[in-house]
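Exam revision sheet. Question 4 asks you to relate a sequence to its structure. Input first:
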Amino acid sequence: MSSKSVENSIITDLGLAPEGHLKIDWVEAHMPVLNKVRKQFEAEQPFKGLKVAISLHLEAKTAYLAKVIQAGGADVTITGSNPLSTQDDVCAALVEDGVTVFAKYNPEPKEYKELMIRALETKPDLIIDDGGDLVTILHAERPELLETVRGGAEETTTGILRLKALEKEGALKFPMVAVNDAYCKYLFDNRYGTGQSVWDGINRTTNLVVAGKTVVVVGYGWCGKGVAMRAKGLGANVIVTEIDAIKAVEAYMDGFRVMPMHEAAREGDFFVTVTGNRDVITGEHYDVMKDGAILSNAGHFDVEVNKPELQARSQSVRTVRRNIEEYQLKDGRKIYLLAEGRLVNLAAGDGHPAEIMDMTFALQALSLKYVNDLHNSIGSRVVNVPYELDEQVARYKLESLGMGIDQLSEVQKSYLDSWAEH
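Answer key, structure tokens:
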């Protein structure tokens, strides 16, 4: 145990560490890709002498990523990216392992923000962000802390949208790698990870059957595709709402009904928002929903389901089960909101499966090394994960599964490279 990490950290209870260690040990045993990256980092020490600040959903898989970066020589500080997804026992275990932690489960909003700022006050050289929170604080509130930051990596669709807006204004001060846009992230994490973990969170929270119910999936990006696919697998009748005509046609051809939200609102038993935008379920929709409709969000911020407009239509609000708030409307109907409208898969569950986050966090770790190696030449912009890193993670994954793939012969390569051969 590092006395420095114990003295500097702000957590709930160091005595919770034993249970946290068990959780971290479990995911480590199921993250073979990240284990290979760890061996690489232990040998190369790419972050030796550097400080790294991480803001992610602070549970066991994230903790293991922090330990892998620490194994690469970094002095690691970590904070949460959602007040309801932080696990106090995992925080305690990380502190015992020498990571500085500024995080607690469900702090007051002001304290939650202060804990993020404390992580940035360590003056990191590199950052890993989730939703653009660290970047926003650095640029909008604490610009004096920008001077040490070489660059970083962003985890989410929401964060990349914020980064690109900052870049468009010419205000971004360091390079950020768009990890969310990598193949080995969105094809697997967003689709299979979100699809499974959302329904894990909903099912364990509500203990209600999905089969035969109508599920409205709001947004048909990669996350929406996964949520809809798993809902169908559970026996639900699935409706998709979209603003993008191409994605709407895709949802239709995938076998789902497509309609505007004001129509879907009348039919849904379960609603899952996955847009990255705000106010996709609002007052006009509450006005026509069924008695007993269940609302949940799997986008980054708790703004997709408009809570003030739901509150304004309610005569009473009470917690009926953990992570379920019952809003009784003035006409007597009841609408249920899961996890306060925050990420249902993390606030009411354990997040994506370890084998899925194995690939995403391997990309995070390798992307952090990439931006550190080339930060002087990349410039202050948002950059994609190099295809070589994407492919490296996929190769590691195949190896862990005991699978191989074919390779092109020299003749085949020549054929593909030539316009004259036929």
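Marking note for examiners. DSSP finds 18 helices and 15 strands in the chain.
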